[in-house]
Input
Amino acid sequence: MGEVKVIGASLSLFCCRIEWALKLKGVEYEYIEEDLRNKSSILLQYNPVHKKVPVLVHKGKPVAESLVILEYIDETWKQNPILPADPFEKSVVRFWSRFVDEKCVVGAWAACCAQEHEKEEAIKSAQESLGILDKQIESRKFLGGEKLGFLDLVVGSLPNWLEFIEELGGIKLVDPEKFPSLHAWAQNFFEIPIIKERTPMAKDLINYCKTSGLAPNKKQV
Output
């Protein structure tokens, strides 16, 4: 299918999704690690608008934003489909994927960055979104049905990142007793070999934050 490159950051929750999908499809690719503190000319060339990772480059053409890239991968390489064929089921997956990014990720980061007098309310709001996600999982082994799918790859980037957010912000968001389905699902997900070998760990994110001088009140992850 032509040359494939992934421009990413190894600790990014958005970038690991792309590598998981390519590995699941059996697609060989060249990985280019990006220094987000000193963005390279290749990143600025292929994503001049947002200047963010991940970027998939296929046959010299760039595709940006993780959810868009995942769909591109599924449409380009037909083996091991990660999106359902049924239009309605596909729309449901898209809805929940956006929910994860726009509610769970944004809500957790907002709780981490919140000022002291706003923190309690921000944590409550983030946990409400996680509770909705927990109910959606409903003790299922895979969110894509009988096998690993699109939504699994999206949700799979959350658990370790949430642990990092808790440490960074000095807050508690996730409790296995409060969110049992999410906890059980994550335990199973991270035992899958292609997932385990390419998962950003919370401790590495913390170390990166410390060495980079990042603080919760700075709008970057």
User: Anything to note?
Assistant: The two ends are 33 Å apart (CA to CA). Residues 87-113 form the longest helix (27 residues).
